[in-house]
User: Fold this.
Amino acid sequence: MAETAQVTEEQQTQESSPSAREEKTPAQSVEFPQAVDSGEQPGNASFDILMDMNIPVTVTVGRTDISIKRLLQLGPGSVVVLDRSVDTPVELYLKDAKFATGDIVVVDEKFAVRIRQILNVAPQQGDKDNDPEKKQNGK
Assistant:
């Protein structure tokens, strides 16, 4: 048993030594071909593949804060009052970016949104006055 402990100790010493950890791997030099200018300007690539993709759109009707106690009391028939009036436009989001506002309508017995305004999706940094909703509300 003492012999097994000694062998195990020697293996651990060899594994933790720098020479055991830094095994030499042969390196090879590689030559890369020169990049050829295709003559196309950046941004002129075909977007056909993107045009057929679907992306999720989220519509926010309103928000509210509710206590855990009230949340646990909710059941069929409960009403949760939101922070917006019925004439306030809903917000449309792509991921976390608001891109439009609109009104809830009904089409073929399904909810739909009629777009009111497309917002500036990417305002310039530092340009907080570029938000169309703030301009519309006079803020």
Residues 56-63+82-124 form a domain with the Surface presentation of antigens (SPOA) fold (CATH 2.30.330.10). The longest helix spans residues 2-16.
